[in-house]
Write a structure and sequence with these properties.
Length: about 220
C-alpha cells in the first residue's frame, strides 16, 4: 500500500515537472511572475519531500527493521539530482525582472540536466519500498503504512499547507491510477480532504492555474 502512496506522490512530481517544461515556452511574459511562483512551489515540494524522507521516514524504517543503511541507495539517488534542483531555484530567484528576463530555453536546459536521475529515482523508490516486505514475519510488527503516517505528521505546517500542498494535490491524478482506488487519498476525514483541495489553493491561487489536474484529481488540459 505504501508503495502505491509513494507512486502517487512521485507521479505528482513528474506531472508538475512536465507542466513546467511544457508551459515555459508557451506563456506570455505577463504570466512570468505567477509561473515562477508555481515553479518554485514545485521545487519546494520536491526538496521537502526528499528532506522529509532523509530526516524522518528513512531513519524510522531503519529503526523498525533494525538495519542501518537499508534506504541508503535512495539517499544516494537524491544526491544525484540535488545540484540540478539548486540550479533550478537559483536561476528563478535570481531574476530581477521576471517579465523581461525569464528565458524558457534556459530553464528547460537546467531541467534537462537533472531530469534523467530524477525520473530514475522516482521510478525506483516504490520498488524499494515493496522490497521491504522481506522484513514482514509472524513475529514482526513492522508496518510501513503506520510509519509513513506517523512520520508524515512532522512534515506539515501551515506555511507548507498553503505553499506546497496545492502543488502536491493539484498534480495528483487519482481517477485512472490503479483503477481509481485512491480517489479518497490522502487518508484523512472527508471534510479535511475537501478543505485541502478546495480551500488551501485560495492562497497563491494565481500559481495553481498551471497545474495538470483539477481539484478532484482528474487530468485536465494545461492552460497553454
Amino acid at each position: 500500500m505504501e508503495a502505491s502512496h509513494m507512486t502517487l506522490s512521485h507521479n505528482s512530481i513528474i506531472r508538475g515537472f512536465n507542466s513546467i517544461y511544457q508551459l515555459a515556452p508557451r506563456l506570455p511574459s505577463s504570466d512570468s511572475i505567477d509561473f515562477i511562483g508555481y515553479c518554485l512551489a514545485w521545487h519546494r515540494f520536491v526538496e521537502e519531500h526528499h528532506l522529509f524522507e532523509e530526516v524522518h521516514f528513512f531513519p524510522a524504517i531503519e529503526e523498525a527493521v533494525g538495519e542501518k543503511g537499508v534506504m541508503g541507495k535512495e539517499v544516494e539517488e537524491h544526491a544525484a539530482f540535488h545540484a540540478g534542483l539548486k540550479s533550478f531555484k537559483t536561476y528563478l530567484t535570481g531574476l530581477t525582472n521576471p517579465s523581461r528576463d525569464f528565458d524558457p530555453t534556459q530553464l528547460r536546459g537546467i531541467m534537462d540536466g537533472f531530469s534523467e536521475p530524477l525520473y530514475r529515482h522516482l521510478e525506483a523508490e516504490p520498488q524499494a519500498l515493496l522490497a521491504l516486505s522481506r522484513f514482514h514475519s509472524s513475529t514482526s510488527d513492522f508496518d510501513l503504512v503506520t510509519i509513513a503516517k506517523e512520520t508524515g505528521k512532522k512534515a506539515v505546517s501551515l506555511e507548507f499547507a498553503v505553499s506546497v500542498m496545492p502543488m502536491f494535490l493539484g498534480n495528483m491524478e487519482v481517477w485512472e491510477f490503479e483503477g481509481g482506488m485512491w480517489r479518497e487519498f490522502p487518508d484523512v476525514p472527508a471534510w479535511v480532504r475537501w478543505v485541502m483541495r478546495n480551500m488551501l489553493p485560495w492562497w497563491n491561487r494565481r500559481w495553481w492555474r498551471f497545474m495538470s489536474c483539477d481539484k478532484d484529481g482528474r487530468r485536465r488540459r494545461l492552460v497553454a
